Amino acid sequence: MEALFGVCSNSLFPSIQNHKNTILLPFPNSAHLPFSSQLKSQNRVSLKPHDLPPFEASNNLLLKCISSDERLGTSVDEGDSLKDGVRIKNLAVFVSGGGSNFRAVHEAILRGEVHGRFVVLVTNKHDCGGAQYARENGIPVIIYPNTKGEPEGLSSNNLVAVLSSYEIDFILLAGYLKLIPSELIRAYSNSILNIHPSLLPAFGGKGYSGPTIHFVDENYDTGRILAQRIVPVLANDTAKELAARVLRQEHKMYAEVAAAICEERVIWREDGVPLIRSKANPEHYS
Q: Residue 196 catalytic?
């Protein structure tokens, strides 16, 4: 069944670019991280607080990632290319578990279906399946938030600074189970997407289920809906069977929406409703 998208004239992207112009960025760009400060352990790299600028040192910032020396020494701007005049978008993903939606979008990127790249993963569980997949694919992993279980996690302000250093365009939430800090939501207004395994906001009528992708605001699951897909509930369905069918649609839809945002095909109506412009027919919105 075709995706049902939220119901177009002001471009999304001028407002999205605002976060790069307004954030004070005390954290250095990844191209300038000091090699002398790298402590390699278990395929991760840590930066000693005393090697960082005074702001980070005073806040006990400890950035943990698993990239190679070559990745740390290369700016995310290098290798940018244009597709129909649109540059590759830098994506961050937040996961707490296996990250199957993250994997689905990443695989679509590798197939050339999404004009973007994951440049960092954020997790509250350093050993979760999504983080392990990121390590296996050379994607840096950072920890948020700082807790007793993850004492090297970042603070909210430092998380915003680190993501800014990676020049992130969009953030995709893929099964991240912690509250997104208000500092991040304000910094990346209309740039954070979440996927929910139900038809928001009313969870659908009798006999229907399906996933929803929405922009993230400062309340749970109340942001503007960008895309939905209906999955019928069959008479003999078990909860497990229905959940599996919904998840398959999540994987497809998240890759399609990631492609749309990276190709700058999401626009905003004057009343604040986001729409997706058809790739095949730019005059059509779905």
A: yes
